[in-house]
Design goal:
This protein has 22 helices and eight strands. Helix content is 64%, strand content 6%. The N terminus is likely disordered. With 638 residues, it is an alpha/beta fold. The protein folds into three domains: 207 residues, Up-down Bundle (Growth Hormone, Chain: A); 184 residues, Growth Hormone, Chain: A; 184 residues, 3-Layer(aba) Sandwich (Glycerol-3-phosphate (1)-acyltransferase).
Length: 638
């Protein structure tokens, strides 16, 4: 596991945020909102699935896809406006206004429940979708204003966990209550009002959070503003493709979750408790995956988890299809949740649903944190609003695709398989467009499988602004270890010959490494490297140089060349010395020991460290002083 020692190790876990006013009231407000949304929505879906005849003549499979569509329609219509509102107004006041609106909406829903009026309930579904549309941009733009960058992954993990636990509890209570006859519906009707009031009370503890753009003039035309929002977001390629990845997750989730009621009833031959079981294990999986993100990311925004999550979504989605084929359904009787678990093949289905949730958490949390970190703070709410529009379009598309495929005769397990295969295709496409995701995944995989890396003083690597990193050069995996330790992308300066090797060449070209050659070998390429370094630093990027110019063949630090002084002379930026420990003797170092013996001695989880030194001002930089700083950081551990 990657660790940040010293100051970083002293940070409390993400759960400590629940004791702080800057996070706790916001957390409980959004939790109660998610709970109430799903208590109401699930109660209506269950009624229209298991007691359809007394409410509507529509088929249950059609209804379970239409109700979510009605709920998300406001995201298409009003997200552009809600993003502007979230930028213009102070957030705690705005949240309280939204919670007052929730009480009014639940009052309309209560009237629909008590009068047995389906259309009033549909109106309330649409209104709650509008409520959620207004809250979304506030929800995700609030955190970067109140949390530190190193808290974003943990904070997002807590919010996603809280959201899905709220969804789970709302769905469970919504399902259980309405299945208890005439008493359950009044409890839902008035309980939703009560929970809306609790959410309002929690919102009054949210601290003042200033508006990022108080002078913004709101453009009320949702269509032109939507286009403008998406065009602005598309200007930041990484953020925009992260938005698309986020929206794809909601497509995947909508395709799978919308089928659970009918899947439980018709395929698994289960009663409503089987539906509740599927929702429970999926939501617990999402919550667990979301919370694990902070631990697996080493308290930084680790987008290497996104490909990992995507792989899991496909693998376990495909296995859910095969697990469904292996399920031995009861011959005649309907089973409850406990009866289901006694059926042959049921545990594999439950496991697949849990793991889809876990890997969904790995996928979604780093994407949210990346968007929050890389987006212009003055445009974050509108970016979130643009993402909500995309989410809505993808979820509407999911409902349409599900209805179309089921109408063409696909079974629900076949629909799960099709969704998992589509996920794999989309993942390959997105990661080919943004290779940084794949690079971070490879780096993350290296330090979580082959090595155990400890990062000492990782906070000294700046989270923004230009700087040059210098480090001793021990092995061919040096750059990957450094990349994994950094909270942001790094442009490595590498010997041009490494670009000709089949695998390493592709990796470093993908990472936008800068090729360099000795003056006597290729003076033009050398000068071009200096120009490329200057451009990267001018653009505020991190550049890493190995001033020795070659791998060590003795394990000792070779003399630092003068190129670093030339770089700093051109670009007046700080230089941060670093030292790798424990890589000498690695199979990919130039140690002359027996290769097999080296690999055996190091073991599968060999211990490494990266020590980060204090930044050196540009006017104090010399090759000799940097070499001494790196030697001091490395110490006796090669």
């Amino acid at each position: 596991m990657t660790q940040s020692s010293h100051a970083s190790q002293q940070h409390a876990s993400q759960f400590a945020l629940l004791k702080q006013r800057r996070f706790a009231p916001f957390f409980w407000t959004q939790f109660l909102g998610a709970f109430n949304d799903n208590l109401f929505k699930t109660a209506l879906i269950v009624v229209l699935t298991f007691d359809a005849a007394s409410w509507t003549t529509l088929k249950p499979s059609l209804v379970t896809n239409l109700i979510p569509g009605i709920f998300i329609l406001p995201y298409v219509l009003f997200s552009a406006t809600s993003g502007q509102i979230a930028e213009k107004f102070e957030k705690s006041t705005l949240v309280r206004f939204i919670k007052w609106a929730e009480i009014a909406i639940m009052g309309i829903a209560a009237l629909g429940w008590m009068t047995h009026s389906l259309w009033l309930l549909v109106l309330a579904i649409f209104a709650m979708g509008t409520h959620s549309t207004l809250f979304g941009p506030v929800k995700y733009s609030y955190m970067p204003q109140q949390l530190k960058p190193e808290e974003l992954t943990g904070g997002n993990g807590m919010v996603e966990m809280g959201t899905f636990v709220g969804i789970l509890l709302g769905q469970v209570f919504g399902d259980v209550l309405v299945m208890h006859g005439s008493l359950g519906i009044p409890v839902v009707a008035f309980g939703t009002i009560g929970f809306a009031v609790l959410g309002l009370l929690a919102s009054y503890r949210i601290p003042v959070t200033p508006a990022p753009a108080p002078d913004l003039k709101i453009a009320w035309n949702p269509f032109t503003e939507t286009v403008r929002n998406l065009k602005h977001s598309a200007g930041n390629r990484t953020v925009f493709l992260s938005m698309l990845g986020n929206s794809w997750f909601w497509f995947y989730g909508a395709m799978v979750l919308a089928q659970f009621p009918v899947y439980a009833m018709t395929f698994l031959k289960g009663d409503h408790s089987v539906f509740v079981l599927l929702l429970t294990v999926f939501s617990l999986g999402i919550g667990a995956g979301s919370l694990l993100c902070e631990k697996l990311s080493g308290r930084k925004v680790e987008i290497g988890l996104v490909p990992f999550g995507s792989i899991g979504l496909s693998l376990f989605g495909i296995d859910l299809y095969f697990a469904s084929l292996g399920y031995a359904a009861p011959a005649a009787a309907t089973v409850d949740a406990f009866g289901l678990l006694a059926q042959s093949g049921s545990w594999r289905i439950v496991f697949d649903v849990v793991m889809i949730g876990v890997f969904g958490g790995f996928f979604i949390v780093p994407l949210f944190a990346l968007i929050q970190l890389r987006c212009d703070p003055k445009h974050l709410s509108r970016t979130i609003a643009g993402m909500n529009i995309l989410n809505a379009l993808f979820m509407v598309a999911a409902a349409g695709v599900a209805i179309l495929l089921l109408g063409q005769g696909l079974t629900i397990p076949e629909l799960f398989l099709a969704t998992a295969v589509m996920n794999g295709i989309v993942a390959v496409y997105i990661f080919s467009l943004v290779p940084e995701f794949l690079m971070r995944f490879l780096a993350w995989l290296l330090i979580h499988t082959v090595h155990k890396v400890k990062v000492i003083e990782s906070g000294r690597i700046p989270e923004q602004g230009a700087a040059v990193l210098v480090c001793n050069h021990v092995s061919y995996v040096d750059a990957v270890v450094i990349m994994a330790a950094s909270p942001r992308p790094i442009r490595f300066v590498m010997d041009h010959r490494i670009f000709k090797t089949p695998i390493l060449g592709w990796i470093f070209r993908t990472a936008k490494a800068i090729p360099i050659a000795p003056a006597k070998e290729d003076p033009w390429l050398l000068e071009k490297a200096y120009v490329d370094i200057a451009h990267a630093l001018h653009d505020g990027e991190l550049v890493c140089i190995f001033p020795e110019g070659r791998l060590t063949s003795t394990g000792e630090v070779n003399e630092f060349k003068g190129g670093i002084a030339k770089v700093v002379e051109r670009s007046q930026v700080p230089v941060i010395p670093m030292a790798l420990r424990g890589l000498w003797g690695h199979p990919l170092s130039r140690s002359k020991d027996n290769l097999f013996g080296r690999a055996f001695r190091k073991g599968l989880r060999s211990r490494l460290a990266l020590a980060v030194g204090q930044p050196v001002a540009p006017d104090a930089v010399t090759p000799e002083s940097l070499q001494q700083a790196v030697l001091a950081l490395r110490g006796d551990w090669k």
